[in-house]
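hi! just following up on the protien thing from before. the input was this:
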Amino acid sequence: MSTEQHDADAYGQELARISHHQSEATNARFTVFQALAAAGIGHEQADGIVSKLEAGAVAGAHTWISESSPPHGCEPGFEDGWFAGVRDVAGYLLRIADTTATTGRGRAASSALLLAHVRQPASPAAQCPAQDSAPAGEEVGR
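and the predicted 3d structure came back as:
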């Protein structure tokens, strides 16, 4: 297997893991919104709570990245590049945390509407009749 193929496989595995985490986060967010609604927390307050939790998770990643260090015994130039990269990534994570803490409006209400829709019984008009249908232009029973 070539290095390029190995890199593509590794990247595909990373994307699959990220997709899994995003799906799990969506399910968890939905559950939190349900629990907050059941506790009598309004949509706007629920959005604020969840946004702060998510911003805190990003802030945790910021701390983890900021505290990382280059491999032991590397060249000074590599260390300089390492720390410059860490500062760039940490700054980007900080902007994400700031944005996340102030956005997310309407997600609790959207979750409530989705839940109400999912729990709704199917409309009789939306169900297909259980009779034989003939192709267009033909009559049934001929």
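Residues 138-142 have pLDDT under 50 and may be disordered.
Residues 3-113 form one domain.
cheers
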